[in-house]
Fold this protein.
Amino acid sequence: MTITSFGPANLITRAPETHPLTWRLRDDGEPIWLDEYQKKDGYAAARKAFATLSPDEIVQAVKDSGLKGRGGAGFPTGVKWGLMPKDESMNIRYLLCNADEMEPNTWKDRMLMEQQPHLLIEGMLISARALKAYRGYIFLRGEYTTAAVHLRRAVKEAEAAGLLGKNILGSGFDFELIVHTGAGRYICGEETALINSLEGRRANPRSKPPFPAAVGVWGKPTCVNNVETLCNVPAIVNNGNDWYKSLAREGSEDHGTKLMGFSGKVKNPGLWELPFGLPARELFEDYAGGMRDGFKLKCWQPGGAGTGFLLPEHLDCQFYAGGVAKVGTRMGTGLAMAVDDKVNMVSLLRNMEEFFAQESCGFCTPCRDGLPWSVKMLRALENGQGQPGDIETLLGLVNFLGPGKTFCAHAPGAVEPLGSAIKYFRPEFEAGIAPTRAGDLNQVISPTMVGA
């Protein structure tokens, strides 16, 4: 896995003042254990937070920094923390780390957990102090077996050093941290489905309200944050809000840095810590190296399989949530995928929708029945057996499964790439209509009949 820096790949060395998430990484990719982590200023932020900041001051510092969730939704972290109850009598609270990284084409949290487990632990320790949470869980994707081994070893090291457990750093504050491996369900990336799974229940999303901050795991106040989000907390506490905000490029409404990547038929697929607001073209050309010889960029997704496709000209957008929204989709996880000119979009979408249909929890009808329906039609179009009206029906499903029309965000994320693919590459879908039926195109169902 490639890790480079702010400038053109491999030309500038990572430094604490510019790369808060990755400056400690070893060139050989080996994990950084406690002794080395502490020599590299590890747990200094935790000591500062415990010695000089009250829980409310930590919450305010994170709120003032503008840190937003790095799991894809981008909700302001400090605002989320502020939703936890102020009532001191509610002394059983939980902090959950969402490490169920199952978004296709996303592997950023895996790198942090495998190579810097103590960075996550320190971030959770400070966050737990701010939230007055006495117990934390790292809900880890079951397939991340190496990360599980490294995290459990790091937890034991921190416990032995008095950085977890009872009376941490002589503060009187207790915090227990548990690594919990999931059973491999994409839907557990939704925080309430994660909570249900942690409790031993079926991984269905819960109705909100009540929100987890009021009624979470085992009915107690709970905060759920992504791995990368929590890993930003130590640097914010150590260096302050002005420094953190200064990391992003001019014009970006998001602050700090982000783990970004590019995969597909690019010359240098990898993962880099980069400032919010850089042009997506810089990420694609200077870091990923552009397309391999013999391939052309057909389109790209900015942040996982649940984001819409964009065209090559959209690479000129600023790579932050608002900049990507201006060209019609979401930044998502920030790990982009290049689709080359040899890929058939119908086959690609059929593969994607099969995944999303399989991972539906089955709770609500539009998602449970609509996604398999899209797979059936895409498979027919892929095999040249489509019927007149199939494309309009697919567009109808994009509408019916859109934001606000299903119980959670699973279905809207599933159909966003489908809608954008038809928008930009409709002739490839039309080519899948069976020749014997091509003459029936005048009988195509009206889009208004299917809600498109």
Notes: The chain has 16 helices and nine strands. The chain has three domains: 21-246, 257-340, 345-449. Residues 410-430 form the longest helix (21 residues). The two ends are 42 Å apart (CA to CA).
